[in-house]
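From the shared-data thread, chain only:
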Amino acid sequence: MDSRSLYGTAILLAMTTPQSSSAPSRLLTVAELAARLNVPPRWVYAASAQGRLPVVRVGRLLRFDPADIDRWLASHRDEPVDV
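Structure, as tokens:
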């Protein structure tokens, strides 16, 4: 088995292995994040390319840490305005 196959296997195992409560949560794919944010996948790609979203690059793949996304969402909430 060559190193690329081992690397791919390690990534696959890391993404599919159940995590304990103290371990970090599974990384989200572009499609999963788009569904979570209710936006098109092309928006996720564009926002990532522009540096507007916290992204983890795994080779050419984009992945998103749910904890980072939660913090990003919290920092982008508009405060209610009293009328």
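The mean pLDDT is 81.
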